[in-house]
Amino acid sequence: MGVRFRRSVRLFPGVRLNFSRSGVTTTVGVRGATMTLGGHGTHVNVGLPGTGLSYRTRLAPSSSARSPKPEPARLPTPHALPPKPSISPPDGAVEIRSAEVSVLTSAGLGELKRLINEAAVRRRILISQVTSHERALKKARGRLRLARTFIIRLVTAKAVPRLAAELASAEQQLEQSRAELDGCYVEVDFGFDQATLGTYAALARSFEDLSACNRIWDITSTKAVDRVAERTVATTAVSRTPVTFSFTAPAIVRSKYQVMQLGNAGGRDLQIFPGFVMMRDLTQDFGLIEFGEFDMKLSRTRFVEEETVPADSQVIGHTWKKANKDGSPDRRFKENYQIPIAEYGELVMTSPTGLLEAYKFSHYGKTQAFAQAFGNHKRALAASIATDGPDANLEEPPATEDEPHDSAETPDAPIPVKPAKGLWLDWTALALLVIMFVFCAFWVRSYQVHKEAPAAPVAAAPAAPSPSSSPHHRRHRHRSAATPLSSAQPGEAQ
Q1: Which residue has the higher pLDDT, 135 or 2?
Q2: CA atoms of 490 and 494, how far apart (whole Å)
Q3: Tens-place pLDDT, residues 448-468
Q4: C-alpha pair distances (Å), 369 with each of 275, 276, 381
Q5: How far apart are CA 213 and CA 360, in angstroms?
Q6: Any bridge partners for residue 26, and if so which?
């Protein structure tokens, strides 16, 4: 692919930004042999480190000397996130929304955007590989665990070394994929002076205070209010969505400086770097805006708050739900009540390329401090660019100790497999199981034979004649039947 992202496995070379009077350029390459990409064309810089000898030539003319280059097609997104449902503005409202991310990039950052998109595509492929290797590792562990199970290992003893080798290979592949994923990014360095770095540090501190506001809203639309028909003192109705501001660590573009992230109701968050602003949408596309083209306007607003007033806001007055032109309550409405008027801060961010975002903050003082810090850093950055000159920082800095180095490949060492110990226990347990099985089978067979054997015949004794069957007994029974039930006592006549 021709470029490598630092701390990867030699996939892409390091990328560095250069700020000059003519704009922002991108330097790609290694020390002594670099390529500068920017609005003035493509230049090749070749030199001998330590000698002061260098050579510079132009490969492509400047963007103004050639026909405008169409915006490159959006790279395929195999696993793009589903877009959030768009927030439809009310009827007659004006939507506050930036243009498509694909057209927001400044002219001097086009090549950097291309590299970032390539890194994003490569990162999605690596994420898929990591997931696949994790499943393979889980399966290899299960097979080896089963092969080493008690008694079963007597049969699978010869397969254990092979399964252990497969497990080690799966672990190595997963480790390599994770290392590639961790190193798949574009590292951006900013060669600023101490004054510019100081203003950015002050901007980061003011951003931290701003993110602590009790409420931050993203304004998505505005609409003019008919004060007579609505019976209100408000002149504009806004649609707002609560969002959060925080520091972030982007996975694709990395820097040693703090990166500020501004939440967005449509999912297209803004990220502020020391030298440019980046917007990323849910389709994984990027928009890069130079700091000089990023504009921020501050305003103090009086907001009729019909919801709960934030704790850090200042209430500067009250009005009525239904009010006359002079602010007095409209007596025609019986259930009329007072509404507080809060003081909020508002920031509107724009750029010539189509950026348009508006935010409202519950604390005006913090909003004002952030806007001032932003202006200070923007002016310091412009002064630093004007001082450095167009050819500053063309030479790639020396590699640090953590930079990967090529080394001769060594053959993989054999994977040690621990011999199975205590197999006599397995054999003993297996013998006992066999004995118990044979005993149980013999017992069951004996029990079935005993149950199915016929009973021995018993000799029948001659039956004695029944008294009731003899004639004498029949006669006696006949005679006794004629006698009364009560028997005669001794000495009495019959």
Answers
A1: 135
A2: 10
A3: 777 766 655 555 555 555 554
A4: 20, 20, 18
A5: 10
A6: 17, 37
